[in-house]
From TrEMBL:
PANTHER family, per the entry: PROTEIN SUR7
Spans traversing the lipid bilayer: 116-141, 148-171, 191-212
A Pfam family: SUR7
GO aspect biological process, one term: cortical actin cytoskeleton organization
Polar residues: bias regions: 298-322
Protein name: DEKNAAC102368
Cellular component, GO annotation: cell cortex; membrane raft; plasma membrane
Keyword annotations from UniProtKB, A to Z: Membrane, Transmembrane, Transmembrane helix
Region of interest: Disordered: 293-322
Length: 341
């Protein structure tokens, strides 16, 4: 099963080197008249109709100069070579006589698009060259330089696509302008094929590299090792009583500081204010009493259901407080008994 991944790695390497070679050929074509590359050009038309043209007869635009056409189909009698030679008849010809109006009015469009297209293709070639070594390390040997390769390869693809698209667009537009001026023009099939084969190699290689990456890291790989999972311990959460399970009011129990805290108090009501405890009425024998509007107290026997309360304060302080309250109530009781009916 390892033969298939190795095959895709070789295919990816061939596509990478192929895209580099075709892009290089696209950029160097038209730079010489003697080699086989002399038959490459972007646009060909009849320049004899324009008095200011340096080439009389059929002429061709390449990335480096304006050339004539030899009998063997190669470029000949080229003007002085210049990198990123602009496709702009207004600048290429010494006279504007009979030049189509579109080349005169939209001069910047043709001038800059043709030059920028070449420049972007050069930048794409540079990034592609820099991506070769990280590619070999990442794909063939499984190195850790994958992010470097993807950055370089992505930049190369971006600049190359823009450069080829600009060049194709500007020369296609020029062909149409010459055609509307009753001057037949043709695009160079060789250089167009070479340029767009480069883009095709880029796109296909992206899918191949993605497949290699998925095969290496997925379960389909022969080297796949299932990850070891460790079950996480459940988090310990403190359970709190629900809202309806809580008790409120006077029946709630509080901690008792002293287990023998005054079981015969018979306190009828109690409020905690400023750390002190108060009672409404306490009878002399410990039974509950209620004060009427006249100041008289009616004594009631202590019921079994009377709630018992405890205090948070120390036992001695609590007992002293109860004694003070009892003493005060005795005084009030005596005063009420002595009052005239």
């Amino acid at each position: 099963m390892k033969v298939l991944p190795l095959t895709f790695k070789l295919i990816s390497l061939i596509l990478l080197l192929g895209s580099f070679l075709t892009l290089l050929l696209t950029l160097i074509t038209g730079g010489t008249e003697d080699s086989a590359l002399g038959k490459f050009y972007w646009l060909q038309t009849d320049c004899s109709k324009y008095p200011g043209s340096p080439i009389q007869g059929q002429c061709r635009w390449t990335y480096y100069h304006l050339c004539g056409v030899a009998s063997n189909g190669k470029n000949t009698n080229c003007v002085k070579s210049k990198p990123a030679y602009p496709f702009s008849p207004r600048d290429n010809f010494s006279s504007r006589d009979k030049i189509p109006a579109s080349f005169l009015n939209d001069r910047n469009k043709y001038f800059f698009m043709s030059r920028i297209g070449w420049a972007f293709a050069i930048i794409g070639l540079f990034f592609l060259f820099c991506a070769v070594l990280p590619f070999i390390t990442y794909i063939l040997f499984g190195g850790r330089f994958g992010w470097i390769f993807w950055i370089l390869y992505g930049l190369s693809f971006l600049f190359t696509v823009i450069g080829v698209a600009l060049s194709t667009a500007v020369f296609t537009s020029g062909k149409n302008v010459f055609g509307h001026a009753n001057n037949k023009a043709s695009l160079g099939a060789r250089i167009l094929s070479t340029a767009w084969i480069t883009i095709g190699c880029f796109i296909v290689n992206l899918f191949v590299i993605a497949y290699i990456r998925v095969s290496r890291g997925g379960k389909a790989s022969d080297d796949y090792i299932p990850p070891v999972y460790q079950e996480a311990e459940p988090a310990v959460t403190e359970k709190k009583p629900g809202f309806f399970k809580r008790t409120f009011g006077r029946k709630e129990k509080y901690p008792v500081d002293d287990a023998a805290a005054l079981q015969a108090d018979g306190l009828s009501a109690e409020n905690a204010v400023g750390g002190q405890r108060f009672t409404d009425t306490v009878s002399g024998d410990g039974s509950l009493g209620a004060a009427n509007s006249r100041g008289h107290y009616s004594l009631n026997s202590k019921t079994e259901n009377a709630p018992q309360y405890t205090s948070y304060m120390p036992s001695e302080q609590y007992e002293q407080q109860v004694q003070d309250v009892m003493r005060k109530l005795e005084q009030e009781k005596a005063a009420a008994a002595a009052a005239p009916q």
